[in-house]
Design goal:
By secondary structure, this protein is α/β, with parallel strands linked by helices. Helix content is 45%, strand content 15%.
Length: 321
Amino acid sequence: MQGSNTLEKLPVGKDSNRLALRNARQALNSVILGKERQLDLALACLLARGHLLVEDLPGLGKTVLAHAIAKTLGLSFNRIQFTSDLLPADIIGVSVFQKESGEFVFQKGPIFSQLVLADEVNRATPKAQSALLEAMEEYQVSVDGTTRELPDPFFVVATQNPADQIGTFPLPESQLDRFLMRLELGYPNPANERELIVGEDRRTMLQTLEASMNVENLRALQSAASDMHMSDALVDYIQALVRQTRESPDIDIGLSPRGAQALASAAKAHAFIEEHAGVYPDDVQAVFAAVAGHRLKASGDTNYRSNTELCQHVLDSVDIP
């Protein structure tokens, strides 16, 4: 499915950008019910120029979330259904011989879009998954010895089913590390689920959902988020958390320097969305599990049953400045 940038002449300025962001949050919450925290984290991930991995059971709204983000932010959109027979060329594109000209012409694949939904990414083989590596890290793809730039902004939202389900291939650590955040949506509460049952179908709502901003607004918001003030004490706090992940006996593999950078970028974006004067410890804590959870490897004898519990243990082990 190919979307389009539906707003071309929205005003761009500090106040209008803020208003566009508030409208985007409101629009997303009207489609994805009762998930305000997860939606704010998803927006923070985009403002931090990162990629998002949404992991949960089928039927909980992962795909609808990606559609809604693209529509609300006015981004061009392509969806790639990952299956066991998917090939890298199906993602990146392929050179096709043109008989009339006697030359090979490159036909762009669905990766050439501002927001790409990699649906059920762990149902494809590692060979197909690897087609995303260069794109997500370098914002480019190399085919037939030629490097081609991807659109700006470029944002991958990948969904994956739990690893214990049939027909899944675990994502390698190098692939996981390219996602700034990993989120889980979870089941809706009874009131929201009732509204989903008796109310308008969410996919029908997507057809009428209007963009709240354009690309210029988004770029300005990304720049403003990266400029959020971070005090020396706050940087010390981030470093202490990172050090705890490396020294804790419950963790075999802690955060890398890239993970530390991701934590800082995500905290800045979260602070910007919450309209804080600067980055607070609360912002770091709000994004920590989403940023660190998929990067940490628990030790074999840890008592913590999930990475979420492990992340909370790290937060509890470090003093707040």
